[in-house]
Amino acid sequence: MPEIRSAVACNLDANILAACLPLMEASKIEAIEWSFDALYKVKDIPDWFVELLTAFSNENRLIGHGIFFSLFSGRWRQEQEQWLQHLRKTSTHFRFDHITEHFGFMTGKDFHHGAPLNIPYTKSTLNIGVDRLKRIHDACRCPVGLENLAFSYSMDEVKRHGAFLDELLEPVNGFIILDLHNLYCQLHNFDITFGEMIILYPLHKVREIHISGGSWEASPAAPERMVRRDTHDDAVPEEVFQLLQKTIPLCPNLQYVVLEQLGTGLDTDTSRTLFRQDFGRMQRIVHEQQPQTGSCFINSFMPDNLLISAVPAADETLFQQQLELSAILESASSCEAAVHALQHSSLAHSDWLIEQWQPYMIETAVSIAQKWKKI
């Protein structure tokens, strides 16, 4: 088992940087994760931020986390090609120890305005995902990984997600970011235990763990329950720290544990103090679980001789269904309206298995899609 580094998700955000600065001054932060594609509106990155990235890059302690690639879009889009070009250029300036992306596809016609949502687990989506991962590796030339989802429509999706990730990553020797708050959302929203869930994931493929906070949302479609949302705008719950203690020993290739929180949730001295306290507790757990001296990597997660097709994989039927689903979620006036529209859409009686979707999760998807559309 390799050395595990305690890291933060550190982006060009005044609140995040204010929360992290005392930790950096005390040399507590052992690595940083940078969302390299989040600066698409920024023409010139400040010199001091470049120096920060360079310092961690030079120590091989900089990891990159993508947001907007939309891995499973059914049609290859010009924005994806531009994303890869940006990654290729960025990788010449900074040495990334690895690059990761979110699982799913982005709703919305505008590439930077949409919600990352699930896809049907089929041979077609598997083929598209493998194709895209190969192209990401070709652009960055370092290990490539994917983050597990916080959102699912049905228990069937929850139970199949880990196996699909395993099959998807195998051709590129890729790895998993196991986001424990995402896992916490699934555990709560589908009433499944940690023991039942964790065995469904290929834990030997976990190279990075995320912890974060989130929020609760009432569900008119299921008044008896609250839905857990991965909003990254609050402190880390006690339950997620408990999951961290249980999970680290199960992941023999774990190298990074990363604390995430959005800048919007770090706008007060109190919230920044809580963030630093969460980091301290995370780091203590990591140090308690450090492997014995002399341990080594089992897997470098570098692929061998990847063959990339000249034409990107695509599925036009999937693409049109994604557009239709996005339109339904972004325009529905209620959960009932969304359900009715889905039942009369091309997704009905298809690989999407919408007949199994839980109404309270459709309601959540509507909320997510309409929130992202406004961002």
Could you give a short description of this structure?
The protein is α/β, with parallel strands linked by helices and 375 residues long.
Number of separate strands: 12
* Spatial strand order of the main sheet: 1-2-3-4-7-8-9-12
> What is the average of the pLDDT values?
93
H and E order = EHEHEHEEEHEHEHHEEEHEHHHH
Strand content: 5-15%
The class by helix and strand makeup works out as alpha/beta
Helix content range = 40-55%
Number of helices: 12
What does the radius of gyration come to? 20 Å
Describe the largest sheet: 8 strands, parallel, barrel
Kindly, what is the distance between the CA atoms of the first and last residues, rounded to a whole number of angstroms?
A: 41 Å
Low-confidence parts? none
- The backbone outline, from C-alpha atoms, is globular
Task: List the topology elements.
Blueprint: E1 5-9, H1 14-25, E2 31-34, H2 47-58, E3 62-65, H3 78-93, E4 99-102, E5 105-106, E6 116-117, H4 123-140, E7 144-147, H5 155-169, E8 175-179, H6 180-189, H7 194-198, E9 206-211, E10 215-218, E11 226-229, H8 238-247, E12 256-259, H9 269-288, H10 316-331, H11 335-343, H12 359-374
Parallel strand pairs: 1-2, 1-12, 2-3, 3-4, 4-7, 7-8, 8-9, 9-12
Antiparallel strand pairs: 5-6, 10-11
Task: Write structural notes for this entry.
The protein has 12 helices and 12 strands. With 375 residues, it is an alpha/beta fold. The strands form 3 sheets. It has an 8-stranded parallel barrel with strand order 1-2-3-4-7-8-9-12, surrounded by 5 helices. It has a two-stranded antiparallel sheet with strand order 5-6. Strands 10-11 form a two-stranded antiparallel ribbon. α11 (335-343) crosses α12. The longest helix has 20 residues, at 269-288. The mean pLDDT is 93.
